[in-house]
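for ur thesis appendix - Prohead serine protease domain-containing protein. copy paste whatever u need, i formatted it the way the template wanted (i think)
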Amino acid sequence: MRTVVQTRTETLRRNTADPAARTVEVVWTTGAPVRRYHIDGYDVVPYEERLIVSDKAIDLSRLNAGAPVLDGHRAGGVSDQLAVVERAWIAGGSGIALLRFPDAGTSARADEVFALIEQGIVRNVSVGYSQDDWKDESATGADDVAVRTVTRWVPHELSLVTIPADAGAQVRSGVAVRGMVARRGALRQALAQRLAH
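the 3d part is after this line
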């Protein structure tokens, strides 16, 4: 089966930024439901995706092996990497990670982004992941959508982004906000084309 990387967004918590260590703690998932779309013939069909957030459901091996922290899921080259995941874990129904930025002066872009995190300007985090196992439930009524519950999944990278999908994924501070957005790539284009006709 071909691995398709999905994305979800959370928000940074700036009070955890440590300028001396160049680290910040983030929530990268709360498992909040996200509206997704798939193509069925010529139709773009919505469904709700729910991620199970537990040690059993999430394979943290890639994150804990030093997964990249990217600029907006761009993975065209090493210049798109802003930081590295030092450690990732599950606590209180959320995925949490400690990110480490390069030493000051190593990367002007990383320095700029770290400063924006410290100032509370950049707050949103997104996770790129693949699904290994899931359960699908059909829609039960005319106004309902099908539900996919992802029971086993693998995070591949974390990204700093502007628009959150799961607004509970953020730089850690005293207050977390919840919301969500799904990056849809080709599905977004297909939806736009479908709506244009």
